[in-house]
Amino acid sequence: MAALRSALPEDLRDHPSIAKAEKPEDFIRQAVNAEKLVGVNPNRVLTIPEQGDTDGFRNALYKLGLPEAMDNYAIEPPKDADGNPLQGFSTDTDLAKGFLSKAHEAGVMPKQAEALYHWFAEQTQGHQKAQAEQAEQAFNQNIATLKEQWGDNYDANLGLADFAAKKLGISNKVSDAGLGHDPDVLGALAQVGKLLGEDHEVTPGGGGNPSAGYREQGMDLLRRAQETRNPQEARRLNQEAQHFFAKARGG
Predict the structure, then answer these.
(1) Letter string b/e over residues 9-20, b meaning 16 or more CB atoms within 10 A of that residue's CB
(2) Taking the model in full, what pTM does it have?
(3) I need a surface site. Which of 109, 183, 214, 241 has the fewest CB within 10 A?
(4) pLDDT at site 30
(5) Phi, then psi, of 87 in degrees rounded to 5
(6) Sign of torsion, CA 94 100 104 105?
(7) Is there a contact between 182 and 139 (Cβ–Cβ < 8 Å)?
(8) Around Cβ 240, how many Cβ atoms within 10 Å?
(9) Distance CA 119, CA 78 (A)
């Protein structure tokens, strides 16, 4: 190779591409590859950018097929096993637009972006279905617990609990907090309903009547239980409230 290189003109002898050649056939391979590039559209020639060349890397991605604008992503909406579009995951939703915007920013090609979005939609729908099933199981378990605790008084106690919640003005809070069928909450509300149904209306101060004072404390604890976002604290407050309601009845 040294003899071959020394036979070259001086302006070629130290050229970087010549310096890379280690065997005579390397010269031939370089010539063949160079001929292949003659007449090729420059836009189809991909140059590997240097490390840290952000613009060069982006331009390389454009040549490989990345749309220059996020709006030019053309992906199919995800579908279920029967070929029906997954509800909530069409490509014109804010979720899809946000996903595609981030995908474009990260340089994800359209086909890969489509595959990722389909996977995300399927996983999300699966989690939503699992959560719905868990909520239904919890609901059925709570109903079974209440029926076991109340027996033949189940319907009557539900009515008392509903009456108390409306009287206290907390029906919406109970429902919004997902406690509409919680055994502890409904148990406490049913006790309040019994007290109110016996014409023991709760009045501030209790008028010197100890039972009224106990009821007022129980009602205050019950309100606090509905306002807290801590389930354990809500149960503790409900239990304390039931204790005061029992004392109000002389128990």
Answers:
(1) eeeeeeeeeeee
(2) 0.53
(3) 109
(4) 64
(5) -65, 135
(6) positive
(7) no
(8) 18
(9) 8
